[in-house]
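Handout, page 2. Input:
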Amino acid sequence: MSPQPAAGADGARRALLKLSGEALMGERRFGIDPEVARRIAGEAAEAHAEGTQVAIVVGGGNIFRGLAAASAGMDRSTADYMGMLATVMNGLALQDALEQAGAPTRVMSAIAMNEICEPYIRRRAIRHLEKRRVVILVAGTGNPYFTTDTAATLRAVEIGAQVILKATRVDGVYDADPEREPDARLYAQIGYTEVLADRLQALDATAVSLAMDNRMPIVVFNVTVDGNILRALRGETIGTLISEEVPA
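Output:
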């Protein structure tokens, strides 16, 4: 069931890890828990040391959520740009933690801010991966109205990754909200169209549709379990695989 890790031009495995901003909070109500950031970075650095080419897209919900601010009356575009800036702060925190763990990194932003990170250029991002650097992709797509899930799918397709690893706070994709429905069923594998038709809240619909159009498999797994990031990056069977339609 587990997809094979991605292969770059040099034959190395390549995967894109999608982290929500909330994944960096730990038990805090907001912000970044340095211990959690170090744990996540340590597992990603270990997979990188084993030969996996790692790209990371990080959200900003632990600092600012554009959609929530828009629902409270703020202009949606302004709120989304503020959310993009939050992802940059998270990306810099991950960069620091990864480099302390021994992994060379580059932060690449969809919004130009040359004093603190590089602009996102597809060919340059691929080159960094080939040169054994972890690439942290921030500021979403650089456009309002698009989530970081969609940004992760877009970047995964652009850089030639063969799998998106979507880190969440639950074990995978369920047929109902497991926090509200104790009997909710966990899928081992599910097709793109079923996720869309049943409106399962694994990723937003735009991200799932883009993944489906490009046959990009997505693994949804629990980031709060120690070792799960490393397992996912190694290509081990974990969580739920969203891919082509599952035969009946």
